[in-house]
Amino acid sequence: xxxxxxxxxxxxxxxxxxxxxxxxxxxxxxxxxxxxxxxxxxxxxxxxxxxxxxxxxxxxxxxxxxxxxxxxxxxxxxxxxxxxxxxxxxxxxxxxxxxxxxxxxxxxxxxxxxxxxxxxxxxxxxxxxxxxxxxxxxxxxxxxxxxxxxxxxxxxxxxxxxxxxxxxxxxxxxxxxxxxxxxxxxxxxxxxxxxxxxxxxxxxxxxxxxxxxxxxxxxxxxxxxxxxxxxxxxxxxxxxxxxxxxxxxxxxxxxxxxxxxxxxxxxxxxxxxxxxxxxxxxxxxxxxxxxxxxxxxxxxxxxxxxxxxxxxxxxxxxxxxxxxxxxxxxxxx
Length: 333
What we know:
The protein has helices at 27-32, 60-70, 96-107, 129-139, 162-168, 204-215, 245-252, 304-310, and strands at residues 5-6, 39-46, 49-56, 76-81, 116-119, 146-149, 178-182, 185-189, 223-227, 258-262, 269-273, 276-280, 312-318, 326-331. By secondary structure, it is an alpha/beta fold. It has a single domain (74-331), classed as Purple Acid Phosphatase, chain A, domain 2 (4-Layer Sandwich), CATH 3.60.21.10.
């Protein structure tokens, strides 16, 4: 248990006939699991099958469903923000500090005080001490009791994450991983950005940590796993996967409900495999292209009036006794 610091089916018609993606799904199949740019995702259970409903964040039915769960007595409510890239300079967003400030203000205007806020990586763009200090100072403005982080690959440029851990790694294990419990949910924060060649990588020491961490938990314990790079093969060609994640996935199979939340891809994506649902978060900095829709995953310049539609925050509600979490993604206001 670690507190980093206290207080502090709709594929586009033009997809027909396009080639398979690298991980064996057609682009149309890929899109069946995805809600791009600012959708709200609400999970329901019907006949034992998890169904993801993806809708516009202004879809009142989806929003109301998530908020109804969040409003219940004894409900856990937390927030995920991701990929603030403090220090980025480029036409895709000329003021990432400003948009992250707007995201913080939106967190503070949710109408409830989140149990905690998780930043799922790429807090900074170039891992400088000044950028780490800036983003830490900014996050002290979040009205929550606890703030957690996991590192992105941009947070470990040139020093294998040492500057990141000096700022955010107090009380963590190994290269910065940890776990904690609240409201009957077990949370695991993983680091898969330090041994990068092409894909994310966890390593044997961290996988052994997960094995021991889960060993004593009953199988009906809800599990939430945070990482920066997706644990599933979203688009390996662009490094949007973790090469040894299946070893952790195997350890999670015995649990009745597992939710994996990641950043890195700067867009919403939901996929369910058996008992495990994966949700990629959007960004507060700049959009990246959809998988395979550009030569590389580089920052995308969009008209200024459309930038906020690509940025956002995520609130998550969980009521004890329920099987699934209710997830709501909101565009930056």
